[in-house]
Amino acid sequence: MLGSAKTGGHLYVITYRGNCVWFNFSHSPSGAPGALFWVKTTLYQYLTKKYGPIKAPADIKLPGTPVSQKETDLPDASKLPDDEPLKRYDGQSTKIGLGRFLAYLLNPFVKDNYYYEITIPSDSFMEYAKKVDGSPNTVFAAFLYKAIAGYFPSKGDDQLSGRIADDYRNDIGAQESYRDFTRLLHVKFTRSMENDSIEKLIRIARGAVILQMQPELSCERFRQIEEIHRGIDAQPDLKSKKKYAASHSLFRSDARDVFNVSYAGQTDWGQMTDYIDEVHSITDGDFMLEVNALPDKFCLTFQLINRDRKPLDLFCKVIDEEGLPYTVSEMKTRYLPDIELPNG
Question: Is 29 a residue whose pLDDT tops 90?
């Protein structure tokens, strides 16, 4: 039971097998940057107890560290600028892959989500990214597009678009907040681009990202979210709140995409990196790529909803063609504890 004595009163859960530790949390109380406060503190306490003093990351939140106002910041949406962006990005929804995902989503007997762990040496990847003028987000978006174009049969000039996760805390003045300020940027790829070079695909992705990272759009998104929250709060009971939240979901009204890329950015682990082999994020999704970085390697989690590994093979084929070294694990399934939610 979350919130019980067995979980130390926490709404987050830690589980482990062998030398692997799972930190389970929801985006409801915090975003990934906020959850890292908890992850890093917990790891640091464990490692120092087991191995003795080690150098801590600069931003670690140890017991006794005062909780600053900035850490709990929730901006006032009414006070944010309401200027129009210079230009809005034009991209349409796609139905490619929707049928397989709905079949998974609506199946009450499906619990497993399959994934593969891929690592790429940092020096090799950064040298490659510099050569193609790309970032982790745009490079992996281009790689995934190539894999998906090879996986789904052609239906004319259909759209094979993707999403890139963006942390927009800086744009709304909440730089240090633990709260979840994440939006998904839409990148329009079409079947006609299938034979384009990776460099061209990266330019397409970068242009889409630049247009959608305008601070005006971040403020607009936050105002929309706050308006929905007020609507949920105004409902008289839990059933009505759930119905309102589902029917007003921005993720539902956003453009539908085939794949997702989420890069957590560089994380300061301090001397803890001496004890960490890999860091992987595991979420829900199909054609979902979660990316973490350690000083010596990029850690990718390639997620699928079924056991068909052809998408993975096609993705690895792209990596091979681009001349990058990598390792890939066997297929894995998410390891989640059986939990109960507290009443009330």
Answer: no
